[in-house]
Design goal:
10% strand; alpha+beta; two-stranded antiparallel ribbon; 24% helix; 2 strands
């Protein structure tokens, strides 16, 4: 069996620690319950979620505070094992964009 090492590429726009700390402090935890998501679905560690200003497949949003929010594992890809992924739902993405505009 021919095994090749996994190549890891650094993000072109990594999240700076100071920006991550600012987003965590600004949001005060997972924002999903404040936008209509279920608080019962909140679990796990908090993560930074990148939010694009407009839909663009395959391109991650810039790593700037005005394009990032705090979500827990239950409201991101880890939570999709239950069948519904809160963070990729079109209606929820619109709510997240509106939230980012309100805190700008």
């Amino acid at each position: 069996m021919n095994r090749r090492p996994i190549r890891r590429h650094a993000h072109k726009s990594p999240v700076r620690a100071v920006d991550a700390l600012y987003v965590f402090a600004r949001d005060g935890g997972c924002i999903a319950p404040r936008l209509g998501g279920s608080a019962e679905d909140c679990w796990g560690r908090l993560t930074i979620e990148h939010v694009k200003a407009e839909l663009r497949a395959g391109v991650r949003a810039e790593s700037i505070p005005s394009r990032m929010v705090t979500l827990c594992q239950g409201h991101t890809e880890d939570g999709r094992k239950a069948g519904f992924q809160w963070n990729t739902n079109a209606e929820n993405r619109a709510l997240v964009r509106a939230y980012l505009e309100s805190v700008a």
